[in-house]
Amino acid sequence: MPRMLKQFLIAILGLVLVWGSASPASANDTAYNTQYQYLTEDPILNGGQTCVARDIYLAEGEYQWSRYLKGPTFWAHEDPLTGIYLAAGTYHWTDCITQWSDGNYARDSILRTPGHSPVELYWQTNIYPSGWWTWGSSLHQISSP
């Protein structure tokens, strides 16, 4: 390979690596805690539970906390549940889905950080049809001090 072509390819690779590098999240970003899995439209009581968790740093401010659901029959759906004011810190964010009964799943989302009481949301979800679904919750900062 000619030397000039080799230098050109190395320069292009360097640009691609810089362009594709991760950047810090801005205050306008929405954070997601989600799981992709097969869910049946006929869950049974005590049929099982799945949880997904992550640690996330959140700046002080008010957040819109939404449930998230995307399935084979509709596009991603974010349903705002509540606005909450959070202190700055690293939070442990857990979302769980539990087979309930009569076509329902119990879902909850919990935020925990040392020195503060946990904050929890709870709701029920119907799944139809059976298939591969993405479920969880999202947080979007709507104001800061």
- Please summarize the sheet with the most strands: 4 strands, antiparallel
Topology pattern, helix = H, strand = E: HEEEEEEEE
Percent strand equals over 45%
DSSP, total strands: 8
Cα gyration radius (Å) = 20 Å
Summarize the structure.
This protein is mainly beta.
Structure description:
There is one protein chain. This protein is mainly beta. The protein has one domain. Helices cover 12% and strands 59% of the residues. It contains 1 helix and 8 strands, in the order H-E-E-E-E-E-E-E-E. It has one helix spanning 3-19, and strands at 30-39, 49-58, 61-71, 74-86, 89-99, 104-112, 119-126, 131-143. Strands 1-8-3-4 form a 4-stranded antiparallel sheet, with no helix packed on it. The N and C termini lie far apart (58 Å). Residues 1-26 have low confidence and may be disordered.
Q: Which properties best describe this structure?
A:
4-stranded antiparallel beta sheet, disordered N terminus, 1 helix, 145 residues, 12% helix, elongated, 59% strand
Lay out the secondary structure:
Blueprint: H1 3-19, E1 30-39, E2 49-58, E3 61-71, E4 74-86, E5 89-99, E6 104-112, E7 119-126, E8 131-143
Antiparallel strand pairs: 1-8, 2-5, 3-4, 3-8, 5-6, 6-7
